[in-house]
Amino acid sequence: MKQKDDKYVGSGIDKTTNMSYHEINFNIQYSLFDIRHSQSPPFETREGKGMQKFDLEDRLVNFSVSITEVVESLPDTRLGNHIAGQLLRSGTAPAPNYGEAQGAESRRDFIHRMKIALKELRETFVWLKVIQRKHLVEDVTVLHQTLTENNELIAIVVACITTTQRNLMARKTTNSEQGMMK
Length: 182
Hints:
By secondary structure, the protein is mainly α. The protein contains six helices and four strands, in the order E-E-H-E-E-H-H-H-H-H.
């Protein structure tokens, strides 16, 4: 239920950016590859054919490291320990899940593994918001950067899944059209 003094609860507005979740996803989707304007923690890039290309695996590994920093800063209380365990599991899982997706046996397998990574990223986002709202860490800078990176990674993974699904459907359509011509 929405509290009178907290305009963000139940509003669909991210408290850290004061933007709607739709606006955040829209902005992220259209600025994914604009590394120069990224507010997320630094990540490795590789040169290729005249343009910079980010490495999602490196970015997910760096995200896992950020999660461990947040976990280490949580208080040694019953609540802090519970959240630390949950956050450590969900926050470090996307990188190896992405690694598994890279070795997928089919596009469907890739989509399935990416959806698992997405699920873990979304769970992590919720735990980070609990930490933020409960004021469980003193240094909110790392928490804010991790939340921002988490949100960007969610948008990237959603885009990967959507693109792969669209390509899979286009391939099916092309294959069925070719079958009709025979």
